[in-house]
Each structure stands twice: as structure tokens, then as C-alpha cells.
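Lecture 7 notes: from sequence to structure.
We start with the chain below.
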Amino acid sequence: MTARDTQILPDADLAIGDLPSSPATDTGHLNQLARGLRHEARHVLGFPGDLDFSLEGLAPLLSVFFNNVGDPYSHDASNIAAKAHERAVLAYMAGIAGARPSDVYGYVASASSEALLHGLATARQALPAAVVYACDQAHYSVRRVCELLRMQVVTVASRRDGTMDAEDLRLKVLRKRRRAGGAIVVATCGTTMRGAVDDIVALRAAAEPAGAVYVHVDAAGGGLVAAHTSPQPSWSFAHGADSLNVSGHKILGMPVPAGISLVRRELLPERDGGEYIAATDRTLACSRSGLAALLLWARLRSLGRTGMAALISRCQEVAAYAVDQFEDAGAGPDRLPGSLTVTFARPSAHVVRKWHLACAGDIAHIVTVGHVTYAAVNELAIDLAAARLAAAA
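Predicted C-alpha cells for the same chain:
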């Protein structure tokens, strides 16, 4: 039986039947589920997504319908939207990404992968015949998006630190330049396994033999980190990006996934708005979650710029601490400057399961987002040392 043939069947206890269920029973089940997930969160170290947040005070929002229909910058006749809050989030994100809010178009997407799709769809409009160049360390969603858009992808080699090799990009571009369709370069700010940040200044220069160059930055996991790292790497609009996507939940902490798409406004076609069926809309989702925009706004307001900088600094300190502890445990750790990702030798299956570690080959990693504490690092280090001794016995 192949993976395609296997299917996880619905749990019989959760089946939706002909008659209404007991509200008390279902509420109790959901509360128990939430308690279990909160308890398990302390052991989820291998996957980005800050699980340390408290938004219970916003529970009344769950009884209101917030539908951000269409363009965040347009009037909404229904008046049941949260577009003003969405615009505040976009202005903040544009600022930390090195752009004036008036120079970029953005919206809050369902997830960062949708924002990536929006960026690459814009790239295709700008350079319809261009080849896409993406690193072998790029997130798998890059290739999925290119498949959807029927864009040819050329894989570029990575360097030892996980960043895209600018010289290999230059050579690949030279082989394809007869097409004269330009180049779309997908850079990564925070690669999946190592948290590496591509230098988009160097990559744009390497792609210039193709003619016109469009640079999209997949900053899902690393944008907020890079923006608060000194010295700041070359990742943003200030460094030459044409569009970028950032995750809303990986670093900030959210009860739902969310993403932010930002595109240089000059790259999007002008559209004349009309009433309702001809409304101005350059998003992909049309009807969008106003609740996600409100949650992002509330989380950012609770931190402020100084609080965000302090959060990133503490996460970086925990990452540096983890390197020391894992070194003492004999796990052979490694970490790039400023990164929240710490790689180390893949431990036993028991340790991988216990700590929900993300692995690739003989390498495992943790990502020290907000809920990853010094105590959790100490516990994992003890387990790593014990597993190493057991393997040597």
C-alpha cells in the first residue's frame, strides 16, 4: 500500500450525526483538548511557532463576524470588517521590512504560504517568461507554488551555511540567459533546517546577466528575527526585495495561522474599483479573516517595538545557551549568527518523539521561539547526553 492509498479515518467519537450533540459534552471535550495541548507545548521544540501567548481576554471576538472583504485599503460597505486594524499591522510590518507603508501593498493572508503565492503571482505578472531560481534549502512550498503557477524552477546549490550560493546562481543564469525573459530569484530569510538568511544584494547582482530581475524573499520564519538583529542581514525592501512574505504565528504567537504579504506597490497593476461585484481587490483570498488581523494587531500592540526587540533578544540568548548545553552533552551543536535555530546530531528515536524534533538525515534542530525556556533546553540536553551514553554502551 502506498502513502497515497493510506487514509486516516475520522474518529467515531467526533462524528457529526443527524441529531444535535450535547453542548456541555462538546465544550468539555474541547476544553480538555486545549489543556492537553497546553501541557504538550513545553515539549514542542523542533517546529517554529511560539506557543507562549495569552489572548483569552479577546474571547468576545469569537461571537462577532469579521470579514475583511477585498483590498485592505478600500472602503467596506458591509461595515463588518477590521480593515483599520489590518492596515495598522501592515504599516508596522512594512516599517520593519525597510519600506514606507505608502510604497508597498499588503494584506493579512491565511498563512505565509498564501502570501508566498501572492508574491510569486506578482513576479509572474511582472516577468511572465522568467525562470524561477530557488535554493535547494528553500521551503517545499516554493516548488508547490511554482507548480500551481506553471513556472519553471531551477535549483541553485547552497553553501555550507545553508545560504544560496551566489556563484552557482550566476552560472545557472548564464546557461538560461538566451531565453531573455529575466530572472525571478526566491531568497530565504530563515531556512527550514538551519535558519540561514540569503544575501539578496549578492543574489540580485548574480542574476543580472538574465536582464530584468525580480527578488522575492520568503521570510516566513526569519523576517521578524532579521529585522531585530544587529548587524541586520540583507533581507528586506531596503536591500532590494520586490516582495516578501512573513509568518504571523511563528514568532509572535497566535491561536491561528496567519501570514503577511508585502509587495512594492509599483509592481501591481492599477485597477478601477466599482461597487461590490467589481470591487478593487489585489489579494488572493477576497474574503479574508478579520479575526486574524485583529489577533495580530492585539499581539503587536501588547509588545510594541521595544517589546518585540526584547522578545527576539531573549530568544537569541536561549539559542546561544542551547549551543553551550548541547556541546557539553556531546551533541555537536551548530548555530548561525543571530539565528534561533540550533542544529545537532540526530538523537535516538525516543528523544525525537519526546521533544517533537524536526530532523533531516543525521541532523536535528530546535527553534528557540518564545515558549522554549532555559529549563526545557536543560532537560533536552540531559536526554541528549543520556542517549549518547546509551548508544556508546
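Points to note: The mean pLDDT is 92. The chain has ten helices and twelve strands.
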